[in-house]
Amino acid sequence: ATDPLHVCPSAGSKPVSSAGTWGNYMCDSPWILINSSIYAMKAILPDPDFILWTGDDTPHVPNEKLGEEVVLEIIANLTALIKQVFPDTKVYPAMGNHDFHPKNQFPAKTHRIYSATAELWRSWLSNASIPTFKAGAFYSEKLLGPNTKGQMIVLNTNLYYDSNNQTAGLEDPGGQFQWLEDVLTNASKAEEMVYIVGHIPPGFFEKKRSKPWFRKHFNKRYTEIVQQHHGVIAAQFFGHHHTDSFRMFYSNGGSPINTMFLAPGVTPWKTSLPGVHNGANNPGIRVFDYDRGTLQVKDVVTYYLNLTHANLVAPRWEREYRLTEAFQMPDGSARSMHMVLEKISKDKHYLQQYYQFNSVKYDLTECDESCQTDHVCAIREVDFLKYDECIKARSFTAVSTLPAKPLLFLCSLLGLLSFQGHLW
Q1: What residue ranges do the domains of the chain occupy?
Q2: What is the DSSP string of 179-229?
Q3: Nearest residue to 180 via CA among 213, 229, 220, 218
Q4: How far apart are CA 46 and CA 283, in angstroms?
Q5: How far apart are CA 6 and CA 165, in angstroms?
Q6: What strands lie across the sheet with 245-250, from one edge to the other?
């Protein structure tokens, strides 16, 4: 019999009774699952305008289990697979916090891993992008396609991660903030819209109260840039959480001005972050419908593989939901996504539906009032202070509305997106 402590390295010291051919919720994706997800993308949408690859390609294991060569080999293997299945499709890849060695410790200067990764992705990058990628793993590219006018800005937000000791004392690591502002200013002058892509998002993790990712001053600067330049930012696309969620950005007057879509992961791995309840997910991939002229997101369609069913019966990638149908919205604009948030915050049906989508139908338990507060505040408030205020206000409301009699309350890796106009 297989030793349950040695089924998969990413489970750490936790026992895994059976990995199954297609994987286990305690483990990172086996190659057969990764391979299946890319071919599922091809079957769903054979010719997307482009693919967004939001990073985290290596397993969740201690640094001593990996090394620079292993990290680069894994990135190379995934790159080769995507090129094999989508040989003629433009890909915009971003580095995740695990796509470096040691993990999380991205420097704000040139590094051999940046240079090696740039060479692996050279066929996807323009000549102008190579120097900025090698200097800091960020770049911008003109969007290609019929009747398409705009830019794709790909950031290295690992520079802002609170687990990154290399950038702790810096104001603008690698000059990325200033570069971003320059790109956005030039886009405005050229009357172009942009998409922003990255791995680690600003704000808080919706499955763990008061858990931010950015250092406080980095979070503030990023939020201010979005507020100042929102007129040219059509949408933002990030990963890291492995969960399906979104983040809203508002003007100082409270109007919805931008949305960040957070993609579910292909890896089903149950997070090791302390305090997270039911932190695994079913593997997910998604297609964005967008307007090639304005870059406005028209719809989001998420597909998934039920891992339990795949192991017991057969693998089947199926549609999980279409945004406009599930939430009765006309499109994926900031105004519409604000209304989705309003439904989640006020209607138990939409809350529960969102909550099941959040883990790609892995966690089917009820999202109680405390759970609702965590999700609503994380979606609504990216700003640190406003998030704290939201938690306090909703918690106070929940307590103040309790009936007099006592009650007992029994109280989510690889992110792959495809755009059609269509895109992945």
Answers
A1: 21-400+414-420
A2: HHHHHHHHHHHTT-EEEEE-SS-SSB-TTSTT-BSB-HHHHHHHHHHHHHH
A3: 229
A4: 20
A5: 31
A6: 139-142, 150-154, 193-197, 233-238, 256-262, 245-250
Residue 365: how many other CB atoms lie within 10 Å? 14
Q: What are the φ and ψ backbone dihedral angles of 406, each rounded to 5 degrees? A: -70, 140
Tell me which fold the domain 21-400+414-420 belongs to. Answer: Purple Acid Phosphatase; chain A, domain 2 (3.60.21)
Q: In Å, how far are 90, 129, 226 from 223, measured between CA atoms?
A: 29, 25, 5
Residue ranges of the alpha helices (H) in 271-400?
A: 307-312, 323-326, 334-346, 348-358, 369-380, 384-400
In Å, what is the CA distance from 350 to each residue of 46, 313, 354, 357?
32, 31, 6, 10
Amino acid at 164: N
Distance (Å, whole) CA 316 – CA 319: 10
Q: Could you list the pLDDT tens digit for every one of the 424 residues in the chain?
A: 355 545 587 877 676 777 799 999 999 999 999 999 999 999 999 999 999 999 999 999 999 999 999 999 999 999 999 999 999 999 999 999 999 999 999 999 999 999 999 999 999 999 999 999 999 999 999 998 777 889 999 999 999 999 999 999 999 999 999 999 999 999 999 999 999 999 999 999 999 999 999 999 999 999 999 999 999 999 999 999 999 999 999 999 999 999 999 999 999 999 989 999 999 999 999 999 999 999 999 999 999 999 999 999 999 999 999 999 999 999 999 999 999 999 999 999 999 999 999 999 999 999 999 999 999 999 999 999 999 999 999 987 765 444 434 333 333 345 456 666 655 6
Buried residues in 241-277 as b, exposed as e (16+ CB within 10 A): bbbbbbbbbbeeeeebbbbbbbbbbbbbbbbeeeeee
Distance CA 255, CA 234 (A): 15
CA distance 141 to 152: 5
CA–CA distance, 126 with 76 (Å, rounded to integer): 19
Q: Which two tokens stand for residue 255?
A: 């109007």
Of 390, 388, 338, 394, whose CA–CA distance to 368 is shortest?
394
